[in-house]
Amino acid sequence: MPNTIIIGSGSYLPTKIIGKDYFMDSVFYTDEGEKIEKPNEEIIQKFIEITEIENRRYLEDDEFNSDLGHRAAVAAIEDANIDQEELDYIIYASNYGEVNKDGAPNFVPSMSSRLKNKLGIKNRKTVNYDMVFGCPGWVEALILADTLIKAKKAKLILVVGSETLSRVTDPFDRNKMIFADGAGAVVVKATDEENVGIIADSSICDNQDELLYLDYAPSLKKDEDQRPLYIRMNGRKIYEYALKNVPVAVKETIEKANLDIADINKILIHQANAKMDYAMISRLYKLYGITDYDHDIAPMTIQQFGNSSVATIPTMFDLIQKGKMAPHNFKSKDNVVFASVGAGMNINALVYRFP
Fold it and tell me: What's in the keyword line of the UniProt record (predicted)?
């Protein structure tokens, strides 16, 4: 059975940096629709203390999701040094598609087909898939790529995660300060080398009471037009769900790889909220009876890039791989965990071993 290795990576971070001053004139409302009377300076500072998000990136008005994905994909293809016409699949993870400037999602045509067109790939046998799986979408797309390769349905696959969340946030919701835009991509290839690549994975979908912890809902300001829909989070429910379930899922995946936490060199966890990420990593180690660990095990990008959903893990992977997040690095035979949680609620994790 072939294994799946990453042979190239790329990412794109929009050049527009959005700091806290951008939100000083905002008017914020509670989930109950009541205007928050606290000074914005106090609201924003409290937000930074919890999430650690100082800056985030927004795309320009004349840019679209597929533009970001295209730039990341071009970088990954160049890094892999392949002929793009030989790609068997393009898998594009996104949750809102080609969002226009009014915030309307658009998946017709699909994001993967738009990307294939922008890349200029003429091969009719290059199949395009879209992955809509919440924030864990890119990790799930990578799991799908591995499944296709192990089933000998493909040898070369482009896996992209790109999102433009700045266009689907409610102007009156404090949580809009979490979200950001960006794109990351990898090219994966089949190899006959043993014990390398994706050596274990798992996915969990809790879609009962958890279904609407992340939702698409009207503005919190009730006298605004209630027809447009925006991303809406139940932050407390998500936090409790993630802390209870993600560490267990990651531990199970590590065990599935026949490894121990001491064998893991890096944990690339979805950058959703710094407080939540720290807590999930801490709880993971406690499952192994460990309270003191090297915090460099889990690199962080959220402080400067915000939460770009499906793009956070592939972007972080690419930056580390390209030496842009020193002292973090990857070495031959390193075991790296990718893990994410998001809308659905969905959780996934995989263990990747570098050749």
Answer: Acyltransferase, Transferase
Q: What is d(CA 91, CA 136) in angstroms, rounded to the nearest whole number?
A: 14
| Alpha-carbon gap, residue 308 to 162, rounded angstroms | 8
Note the pLDDT of residue 47.
94
User: In angstroms, what is the C-alpha Rg of the chain?
Assistant: 20
pLDDT at 214: 93
What domain range is 8 assigned to?
Answer: 3-191
- The residue assigned the tokens 């991303």 is 231
Structure tokens at 150: 């192990």
In whole angstroms, what is the distance from residue 31 CA to residue 97 CA? 26
With left for phi above 0 and alpha for psi between -120 and 50, is residue 236 left, alpha or beta?
alpha
Q: Determine which helix (DSSP H) or strand (DSSP E) holds 236, and give its type and residue range.
A: helix 235-256
Are residues 250 and 331 located together in one domain of the fold?
yes
Amino acid found at 287: L
Pairing of strands 230-233, 214-217: antiparallel
The model's confidence at residue 20, banded by pLDDT at 50, 70 and 90, is very high
**3 state SS of 74:** helix
Query: For the whole model, what pTM was predicted?
Result: 0.95
Closest to 344 (Cα-Cα) out of 131, 47, 27, 91: 131
H or E segment at 9? strand 3-12
Q: What span, in angstroms and rounded, lies between the C-alpha atoms of 215 and 230?
A: 8
Same domain, 25 and 63: yes
In the block, which residue shows the tokens 């970001």? Answer: 68
pLDDT category at 114 given cuts 50, 70, 90 is very high
Instruction: Give the model confidence (pLDDT) of 217-252 as tens digits.
Output: 999 999 998 898 999 999 899 999 999 999 999 999
List, for residues 313-326, the tens digit of each pLDDT value: 999 999 999 999 99
The answer to whether 96 touches 78, Cβ cutoff 8 Å, is: no
Cα separation, 250 vs 247, in Å, equals 5
Q: What is the CATH number of the domain that holds 244?
A: 3.40.47.10
